[in-house]
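Thread: "does anyone have the structure for this chain?"

Original post by V.I.:
We have the sequence but no experimental structure in hand. Need at least a predicted one for the grant figures.
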Amino acid sequence: MAADDWLRNKDWNHEIEAKFFEKLKRARDKSQYLKIQASYLARKYPLVALNLLDRFFALGENPDIAIAYSEQATAYDALGRFDDAVRSLQKALAREKEYPNVKSTAWSQFAMLVASKNLEPHFNKALEVLSENRQYATFPVQRFEWHTASALILAAQGNTRAAKDHAICALAESDAKHSGFRYHAKVGLVGNKYESLQDRLLALSRADG
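Reply from O.Q.:
Generated one for you, tokens below.
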């Protein structure tokens, strides 16, 4: 067992919780460990993750606040609390403007959440965020997210031609078998994470316009 397994639990129960907080009590950098553990639980145990992140924020100023807001949004998303997720991502994006040296996945999370849940009031902001962060879409999955969010939002706005072009690009990225990086060939591939969006993208890629 690795020495840091106690802060990378993928399951959670009373025994694991007790062990985690006992270790945390003796840890020097509590904020880092709270953030890391929350990231492992955000999807499966979102309420636990939110509690850990509340403890993280209570510790005060930290370089990773934008990343913590991003994980908070993941937990809210898992709970179906999309408005709360949007607010967390907006906080992450605002934080990144103040401290651009620490980058989270908030740009892609925000755009994909707005696009996939059809959150129309945020369409224009999502397109703005995509435009501002195009250079960070370096791996196939990031390029897929960039094109997918663009396609879904533009389609909803009636821009069929542009939506089709982005859908075709997104589908091409989903088929990528190599990251484009020599030493990280399999890192950042789309895999089956977004299978639920494939039919929508296919329909857009075949649309007239």
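V.I.: this helps a lot. The chain has two domains: 19-104, 123-209.
O.Q.: and DSSP finds ten helices and no strands in the chain.
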